[in-house]
Structures are given as C-alpha cells and as structure tokens.
What we know:
A: Dna Ligase, domain 1; 7-stranded antiparallel beta sheet; B: alpha/beta; 34% helix
Amino acid sequence: MPVLLKSKQGKNMKLHEYQSKTIFAKYGIPIPKGRVAATADEAKQIAEELGGRVVIKSQVLVGGRGKAGGVKVAKNADEAAELAQQILAMEIKGLPVRKVLVDEAAAIEHEIYFSITNDRAAKKPVMIASSAGGVDIEEVAATTPEKIIKVHIDPLLGLRDYQSRDIAASIDLPRELWRDFSRIASGLWQAYRDTDAELAEINPLVITKDNKLVALDGKMLIDDNALFRHPDLAEIRDVDEEAPAETEARRYGLSFIKLDGNIGCMVNGAGLAMTSMDIVKLFGGEPANFLDIGGGAGAEKVAAAMRIILSDPNVKAVLFNIFGGITRCDEVARGILTAMDEVKPNVPMVVRLVGTNAEEGRRLLDNANMITAETLADAAKKAVAAAKGN
Amino acid sequence: MSILINKDTRLLVQGITGNEGIFHTTQMVSYGTNVVAGVTPGKGGEWVLDGKVPVFDSVKLAVEATGANCSVIFVPARFAPDAMFEAADAGIPLIVCITEGIPVQDMMRVRNYIDQKNVRLVGPNCPGLLTPGESKVGIIPGDIAIPGNVGVVSRSGTLTYEVLYALKLVGMGASTCVGIGGDPINGTNFIDVLEMFEHDPLTEKVVLIGEIGGTDEDKAAEYIAANMTKPVVSFIAGQTAPPGKRMGHAGAIIEGSAGSAADKIKALEAAGVKVAKHPEEIPSLLK
C-alpha cells in the first residue's frame, strides 16, 4: 500500500541495493561476495571470479524487482553473461536497468525480515523483525501481525544488547546464532544512525545451509535534510532515475512533483501548495505539478521555480499563490519578473499576493500583464478558466 | 485570555542577528511583543533594534539577565537542535522553533530529551504563535488576524494565514493561533492544543487545519468526540495529492494505509466536526 505524499517529510534519497550493502558491510554485517556490473562482459568476469552459481540482480530504485523478472540465478559465467544481457535490456516499472549486481548465490535455509525505521507516532526509531522474511512480508504483517516483532529504541540511549537478544529470542532464532545476530543488529543500528537513514532494511537476512547469517538484500533511505553532514552520500545519489525537472528543483531547494494536469502551480508552503491543487481540482481544473518554494525564497529561487514550471509543455496557465510570512511578496514579484524576462512565457498567469510586503509586490507586477486575484477561490477559478482558453 | 502567549510573555530570540532573526524580531516588536533579549553566540554585549534589545552569548545568560520565559528559534537547521537543547537546559518553559529542514533523527533526540523536562516545544517547521492584539511569537503576519473567540491550530504555515485572513475578512477574530508545524516529529500535537482551547474561557470555537500523512488528525478526532464541548471546524489539505513514495516494507508495516485525506475527513466528520471543502469556506461553517 502506498504511503501518501507527505508534505514536509518523505524527502529522502534512495540508495541502490549494492550501495546499501556496501554500507552494511562497513558496519560488520555479512553480505554475499559480489560486485556491480554495467555490461554483460563485466558480469561474466565477476561470475568467473566468484565461481559457481551467481545471482544477477537488477539495480533500480523500485520494489518488486524479483516479481518483474529482474533477479535471476545463473549456473555459470556464460549463463551470467546471457542473463545480465537480458536484465540490462529491461525496464522495471518504467525505469531502465543500467546496472546489475552479481552476487554469489547463497544456499538458503531460512529467510528473516529485519529493519529499522522512524516511527513518527512513537517519536522513536523502531526495529522490526520477523521470522517470516522474504517478498511477502507485508502480507505477513497484514494477516499475522503477531509474527512481526517491533522494538522501539531510545534515540538518546541507542540500541542496547538486551534488546537485540530479545528480538533474536522473539523470532525463534537458534541460540547459537544470537551472538552473530546481536552484531548484525548493532551494525544495522549504527549504519542507520551514522547515515541519518529513514530506513535501513535487510530482507531477507538469511540463515544459510551451513548455519550462517547473511544479508542477501539491502535497502536504505537517507534523510535529505541531513545530507549536509554526509557529502559522500550526497555524491552517490542516482539522479538517472528521477525526472530532470525534479533534479533541477532540488538544486534550488524547491519541492517539486510533476503531475499530469495543465495548470502550473507555484505556492509557498507545502500545505498551501496542496490546498491550491485541491481547489484547482474542486473548480474543474487539473494541476500540472506540486511546487513549494519554501519559506523565505528569494528572487533567484522564484525564477528557477518558474523556469521549471514553464519547461512542461502541457502547462496552459500558471497560478501563483503567495501568502507572505517569512517569504516576502516583493521578492517573489522580482523573481517572477526576472524569469518572465528570460523565458518570455506565452501562457496566461494568475497571481495572488497576500501578506508580508504584498502591496510592494503587487505594485512591481502592475505592468506585467498578469491576471490578479483577491481570494484563493477566485485565483483558482481564474486559472481554470485561463487554462481552458476563456 | 488566550493560550500559551499573552501580553506578559517575555520573549527571547535565538539567532536574533541573522537575516530572518532580525527581520522578524522587528515585526514582532512593532506588533507589540515584549522582546526582552536575543542570543547569538559570539555577539554577546551587542544591541539590536536601535539599542532596544540586548544580545547575549547564551540562553542561560539571557534568562538570568532578563527573566525571559519564552524563546523563539530562528537559527539554521544544522544548529537548531543545539538551540532547542540549550533553551530546554536553561529552563525556558515555552520554546517555539520556526526553523525548517531539521533532520528527523535530530528531532527524535530533541523530543525524547525535552519529554524528560517540564518544557513545551512548539514546532519545528512552524509559523509560531499569535494572540491577536497581544503578542506574536514567530512569523505569522500580524495584520491578517483580529482578536476574537476562535482558536486556530494548524500543521501548516501559510495555509494557516489563509484561514486567519478569511476569518478577518468576515469580521471574525482569533483567541490564539498555534502553528504546530508539519514535521513528522514535533513538540506539540493537535490534542495538546485542543485541550488548552477547551479550557480557555475566551475560546468558543476551534478551527483545526490538518494535512495528509501521519495519524495526528485521527487521534484529534477521537479526542474531540470524547472530550470537546466546543464546536470544531476543520480543513484537510492534500485531498488530491497523488500517492507518494513509500518507505520500504517498514513504512507499510508501521503506518499501513493511514494518512489519506479521505480517511482523516471521515474520522473528523464521525466526531461531529464540520469539514470545509476549501479554506475560505471555514468562516461560514463557524457561524
């Protein structure tokens, strides 16, 4: 089930499986031997080095890779090359596969689910584990919630050893594996804490036939707001898999999500931006995007926002709804004028400025040939009419 | 009467010499807020606003010298957690953090620390508090609201302004407006504020402005059904927001399908709350 767009959270950076597992390994979590490949030849070479059976795993930032046919087992190096070729030609949920991870195949005895994430309701990190790991874990959570173990961690104390032991016991892990499990739990906690992750997930954590614990798959989400202290992580962000406009927006500190409608929206504040979309729809229009310029945006940021909106050929009208607080309406007006000078837009624009320095802002836009509106409803109605060519 | 702040509030501004700090301190002082001190480490001994407000190196020194009983934080996100810890340690009973973009793990540490102290945190990532005609702590433009008997509580910033302004346009005023902020981890939730409004003699009606994500509105609905005698009107933003990115399996396990606007509206309506289709409809629902 999708978690809905969250206005001021949900801004995070996804890491690929191979990137997540590299971080896990740094924290002492056992992972299979393997490397990432961009071509069939590379995949073959890695398979030769590893010897024996290997798993070829597509590296795309969406779930359900296995079910889409993006994970395959090869018996030898030649088959690895063949399967890598196939997988590298695939698209999974619209994303082209650019890399595959070639891992030695594990002899799996049992699959465990193990993760740590932020529990906003409890205001604490929560460690989640289940002896029923694997791809159907959400089904397990929905139908047999008693099989899901949750342990909250005091963020000021960190994970304590007794908590790791409690989890191991609760998922019926054989006693001889408790010590190794505690090391993995401690590594996962430290990896989560040190990288400002919002999620660090191992699914599955397997018990192999020779009775060892190995993290076969990994997923991490890093809090965008914390990237200032993780320049190394910011650098490995894969921007190939997002819309170019979203990459551009982030560069300017704008929250932008492209939608399918034809009314471009530029608003300050996420709640008001969502409301502006809601009200456009209420009056019969379709928003082309969600765009929050944030608090205190200057003219440069506003100009960038406008370029991004107008780069969408579907946009037939633009609605500016700015309620000044920490944002000053005159700054926004200057940004609009700068961008209009550059982009020379040929779509109608409806502008509503209220709040801090609104009068000055309106005065600046007096000669800009824009449609003005007093209320939010009025602005939305005018934008809907303008987009329809009325 | 009002809640949280009034004309007796003695305000301290952390980050007073920054661009936002000085701009909004000027606005707060001209509104009539009693700003007694500012704090910027390394700038102690200076004065701002033409010598009207002294600057201190630490919150502790500022409290000792001025008796400040409320602090508003304008420092950048990377320093804001430290500013909240400092204010809590100095014994400030009410801390309002305006800063947006604070890492979630930092906020979990702040919140768990503050819960051990007798301190109320409002925010972060919020517009602050406004008791019209008496005091403003934060960035809510003063001229968009008039004194009255409607208590306003909101997770949003600028959307709150829309509501205050819509009320003012029809001559309705606010007792106090509280912006609790939109971050996943914050200091004060809807129920905290609803309880205060329920007990505030001047507040006769309440407006609750929520948005998609989390379960705060659902919990507020339960509280309203069980405890509120005063009428509540609501608006929930994000009714048309598309499904967003999910947080792995863990997100589904922890949050399930909670958080949609439709679910929240349903919960609120079941609790007897009138829910507006758009913010400018709120005043007519309050009549």
